[in-house]
UniProtKB/TrEMBL annotation:
Residues 4-252 form the Thiolase N-terminal domain. PANTHER family: ACETYL-COA C-ACYLTRANSFERASE, BLR7806 PROTEIN. Keywords: Acyltransferase, Transferase. The keyword Lipid metabolism does not apply. This is Thiolase family protein. The keyword Acyltransferase applies. It comes from Niallia oryzisoli. GO terms for molecular function: acyltransferase activity. Its EC number is 2.3.1.-.
Length: 383
C-alpha cells in the first residue's frame, strides 16, 4: 500500500495585522514560501505535480487562484498547476489532506500543500461585502458570529472569564519561551520587507507574542461580543499575515530521489458540526481520526488544537480527557496569530518541528472551521 510522507516544511514568520509583513503582497509571500520549500528539499520545481493552497478571503490580491499565480511567481515551470481552496480556518490543513489523497490514489507522486492569508491587505469578510444569508438557510439554522459561538461554548462547558484569561496568558508564556529557546528557528524562513521610509528590514520571528501581557491586563479588557461575556481581544486569536507550505510525496518517490521522509501522514478526517456552536468540531474530528489511526489519545505526543478562542481547546480538553501538558506546547493562535488560510500549515509545520525536537512519535492536529466543521490529522515521525 502506498504511503504519503512529508519531506520538507517551511513557513514565514506570522506578522501582526498592520505589522511587519503588511507591505508584502500575499501572492508574493506565498511565492517566496514555495521557492524556499523546493530549495530546502533540493529538488526542481518542475517535479511538482500540483500546488494546493488554502486561502479564505479570495478577493483582490488573493483572488484569481493565488496558488497558480504564486507558483508562477516562484519560477515554477508553466506545466505545474495550482488550485486554491477554502475550508475556512482549516483550509491549508485540508490542502494537506487533498495532497495526501492524490498521492494515495496513485494520481500523483509529488504535491505541495499549504496556505496564505494577509489579513492586513485583504481584510476578513471583504469577500462577503453586504451579502446576507439566504432565508432558506436561516430558517433552518441560527447562524451567528463565531465570537457568540465561543460565548455559547463557555456557557455550556462552564468556562469562566478568569479561566479563559489564564489559558490565554499561558499561550503567550509558552510562545515566548519557545522563541527565546529557538524552537521556531528551523521552521521559519526570514522575510526581507520594505518599510514605509524606504529602508529594508528582515523579519525573523512571529510578531504576536506579547511579553508585557499579565493576567491583570487581560482582566481589564472589555468583552467583545456581549456585555457580560468572557470573550475579548486578549483570549481570542489574533488577525495576522503569513504563509506556509509542505512538500508531500509517495514514500517510493522520495526514496527514488534520495530524499529523507520525515513524517508519514497516518490518518485524516473532516467532519461537520453544529453550525451555531460552530467551533466544537475538533472534538468529534479527534475521535474519528484516532479511530482511523487505531490509536488512543494517550499515545499522541503532541496535540495542536487551534486557539480560535480560548474556550475551543479548553472544551476539547474536557471532552477528550487529554493531557494539558501536551497541548500547543509552543503556544497557539492566541499568541502566535491566526492568518486564516495559512493556519493549518503553520500549525502542522510547528508540530513537525516540535516532534523532531523532542523525539516524539505521533502528533494530532485539529482546527475548528466556520459554519461548523473541523479537520483532524495524525502524523507519525519516521525514525
Amino acid at each position: 500500500m502506498r504511503e504519503v510522507v512529508i519531506v520538507e516544511a517551511v513557513r514565514t514568520p506570522v506578522g501582526k495585522r498592520k505589522g511587519g509583513l503588511s507591505n508584502e503582497r500575499p501572492d508574493d509571500l506565498a511565492a517566496k514560501v514555495l521557492k524556499e520549500l523546493v530549495d530546502r528539499a533540493g529538488i526542481s520545481g518542475d517535479l511538482v505535480e500540483d500546488v494546493i493552497l488554502g486561502c479564505v478571503t479570495q478577493v483582490e490580491e488573493q483572488a484569481m487562484n493565488i496558488a497558480r499565480t504564486a507558483a508562477l511567481t516562484a519560477g515554477f515551470p508553466i506545466h505545474v498547476p495550482g488550485t486554491t481552496i477554502d475550508r475556512q480556518c482549516g483550509s491549508s490543513q485540508q490542502a494537506v489532506h487533498f495532497a495526501a489523497q492524490a498521492i494515495l490514489s496513485g494520481d500523483m507522486d509529488i504535491v505541495i500543500a499549504g496556505g496564505v492569508e494577509s489579513m492586513t491587505r485583504v481584510p476578513m469578510l471583504s469577500n462577503w461585502q453586504n451579502t446576507k444569508w439566504s432565508e432558506s438557510l436561516t430558517s433552518k439554522y441560527n447562524l451567528i458570529h463565531q465570537g457568540l459561538s465561543a460565548e455559547a461554548i463557555s456557557e455550556k462547558w462552564g468556562i469562566t472569564r478568569s479561566q479563559a484569561d489564564e489559558f490565554a496568558l499561558e499561550s503567550h508564556r509558552k510562545a515566548i519561551i519557545a522563541q527565546d529557546q529557538g524552537h521556531f528557528e528551523r521552521e521559519i524562513m526570514p522575510i526581507e520587507v520594505m518599510l514605509e521610509d524606504g529602508t529594508k528590514k528582515i523579519i525573523t520571528q512571529d510578531e504576536g507574542p506579547r511579553r508585557e501581557t499579565t493576567i491583570e491586563k487581560l482582566a481589564s479588557l472589555k468583552p467583545a461580543f456581549t456585555e457580560n461575556g468572557i470573550i475579548h481581544a486578549g483570549n481570542s486569536s489574533q488577525m495576522s499575515d503569513g504563509a506556509g507550505a509542505l512538500l508531500l510525496m509517495s514514500k517510493e518517490k522520495a526514496l527514488e530521489l534520495g530524499l529523507r521522509p520525515r513524517f508519514k501522514v497516518t490518518a485524516r478526517t473532516v467532519v461537520g458540526s453544529d453550525p451555531t456552536l460552530m467551533l466544537t468540531g475538533p472534538i468529534e474530528a479527534t475521535r474519528q481520526v484516532l479511530k482511523k489511526a487505531g490509536l488512543s489519545i494517550e499515545e499522541i505526543d503532541v496535540y495542536e488544537i487551534n486557539e480560535a478562542f480560548a474556550p475551543v481547546p479548553m472544551c476539547w480538553l474536557n471532552e477528550i480527557k487529554a493531557d494539558p501538558q501536551k497541548l500547543n506546547p509552543n503556544g497557539g493562535a492566541i499568541a502566535l496569530g491566526h492568518p486564516l488560510g495559512a493556519s493549518g500549515a503553520r500549525v502542522m509545520i510547528t508540530m513537525i518541528h516540535e516532534l523532531e525536537r523532542t523525539g516524539g512519535q505521533f502528533g494530532l492536529q485539529a482546527i475548528c472551521e466556520g459554519n461548523g466543521m473541523a479537520n483532524a490529522t495524525i502524523i507519525e515521525r519516521i525514525i
